[in-house]
Amino acid sequence: MVRADVTWYARRLAADLSAKAAGDPVAFILKHAEKRVRAAAKKLNAKTLPELLDATAQEVSTRFEIIESDEELTRLVATNAARGETGFAQLPKDFEDSYGVTLRLLKRRDWEPERVSVIDCRGTKKYKSYYTKWHELAHLLTLTEQRQLKFRRTHAERQAPDEALMELVAGHFGYWSEILQPHLTGDLTFEALTRIRSEQWPEASWQSFVHAAIDRWTKPAAYVKAAMGLKRAEERQRNQKAMWLLPAAGKLRLADVVVNTPARLRGAELFPNMRVPEQSILHRIYERQQDPGSAEECLSMWESSDRGALRACAVVVTGRRAYEAVEGLITFN
Asked: Residue 306: what pLDDT?
């Protein structure tokens, strides 16, 4: 569900982009951006998501500059300061709370794009580089003030409405269905997902790719990741009491859940923090009582104290260990 303040900002932006904007403002923004992305893809015959990314960058006249170390950032600032691009001097401070920054060049050479999108890939930020690139492009796809000098993607827990809207745009095109959908065929397995990601979008993080793939999978499907955790009430207790008064050790609970629409229609109403049934193969794999594999199960095994058991439905659950957690794919017979 889109936040109310994001819808409000989208309505203002839609009005700036077109006097004829009407209806759902977020849908209007996506449609406006899609026209430009589609034109860029056609012009450069983009067939893969990396090609689409490059084509869109050309469409909005920017290039990517990747920073993987403090030394690279220092050199970038110094090089651009020497040519009179003073805006780059602020980058070290910007990157204290940002993933990416786009700057308009003040002394652009004739052959250069109008802008440079600097992507911070130092440390763990590298795992968000793919979405950061699309976030920067989203700003430019919806740009109304051509003289605006700088954009940046922050990592605040609650983003400003304009940044949150750009995340929606980035998510839409980062795994554009028109390119992704043809690859989502055959049996859903971890091997198939790994192969598709490796061949088509190796830069994307595993979690973001799996979310997009499961959401767009044409057959009923779900992805879950579970780790040891406490109930919310137990979490509150832990925060309020001394260590020696902590509740008993947690149980295996869902930490990440993606259920596509066809699966929800079949009754797979799984949700974060739901307890993994002890009789499920996921529990046995987590406890190392069983090697990675698959098992036929029933959705009614899954239940919660406040919602009861899920609707009875035969499913196949495939699981594997993932560091201190377990991942699972759920498909339907």
From this structure: 83
